[in-house]
Amino acid sequence: MKVSADRELCIQAGNCVMVAGEVFDQDDDGIVVVLVDTDGGAVQTAEVPDDQKDHVREAVRLCPASALAIVEG
After folding, report:
1. SS3 of residue 43 by DSSP
2. Is 69:4 a contact under the CB 8 Å cutoff?
3. Distances from the Cα of 57 to the Cαs of 26, 29, 47, in angstroms?
4. 20 with 59: CB under 8 angstroms?
């Protein structure tokens, strides 16, 4: 399972960090940053560690800007 984070859609709510702090952080402007092996860019995509999958699913569900998405495959 992969997760994508669209930094341009992020509204700095921080729900992702509260729910899945092992995978997400916020930069100095409060914009989401993916902490695990990311490909960088405005839309960051990364493989989610097995022990974080439930947390990441919850973060995606709670994101008020829909800036996070699960990418299967």
Report:
1. strand
2. yes
3. 18, 24, 13
4. yes
